[in-house]
Input
Amino acid sequence: MKYLSIDIETTGLNPEKNEILSIGVIVEDTNNKLPFEEIPKFHVAIKREEITGSPFAINMNRDLIEAIVHYQEAESLDEKNDLVHMTGMQFLNESDVADALFRFLYDNGMVKKEDTSGWSHAQTGEHFRIINGKSYPILKSNMNPVSLNVAGKNFGTFDKLFIEKLPRWKQIFRIKQRIIDPSILFTNWIEDDSLPSLNQCKQRAKIDGAVTHNALEDAWDVVELLRTQY
Output
């Protein structure tokens, strides 16, 4: 089975008022468990001219916000490339995130043939475009959305509400209803009053390290938790 582990960092808890700052995505194949260094991963920070959010969330993400500011203020391409290399993140406008994620999934075999039915599969022409030497389908309004198996801590009640507000997201992607949340696997049904946090899940799974609130690293935490079951 293949699924995407997705995590986001935001400026607050309200998807109607607050914004996504970064998105981390990992492609996990349960039949081919790769180490973090080799596994396909997508990590993007969203460029923003203004940020609206809660003091707590903004303070928690201050290093991320500082990186976004530095990228936007960089005076040369070399400076920007250095920041990309140092942080491991792409820096994109919000309007470009869904397209970039589609290309990442296309490169990693996550776009099935039925998702591209009706598209031209010629390598040149109006239905394809070349980006960095690679050919990608042009995403049109009548395309079939790509169906995604998704895992994430609280993804269905938090991350999904933010992500689906991204420009073109619902045109390009459809998140399957059965979302994988690792917390159910580490619940103590006798002593817990609610589902455990990501930190508690890691402790109970005996996985070292605290939750960092880095979107990509938190997405990897979910993969590691689920790997204890397969």
Q: What stands out?
A: The radius of gyration is 18 Å. The CA atoms of residues 103 and 136 lie 7 Å apart.
